[in-house]
Amino acid sequence: MNATPPEVTDAVRSLERRTADLFAHFVEREASGVPLPGRSTAHRFAVLSALGRRDLSLARLAEGHLDATAILHELDDSLPAEGERWGVWAARPPGPGVRATRGEQGWRISGVKPYCSGARSCTHALVTADADDGHRLFAVALDHPGARAVEGTWPAIGMAGSDSLDMSFTDVPARAVGGVDGHVLRPGFQHGGIGVAACWLGGAHAVAAPLYGRAAAGQLNGHAAAHLGAVDMLLHTADTVLRRAGDDIDADPFDVREEARVRGLRVRALAEKVCTEVLEHVGRATGAGPLCRDERHARAVADLTVYVRQHHAESNLAELGRLATTDFPAATAPATTTGPAAAVPSGPDGARVDCVRTPGVPGGGKSVRDIPVRNL
Question: 40, 101, 287, 323: least CB-packed within 10 angstroms?
Answer without folding.
Answer: 287
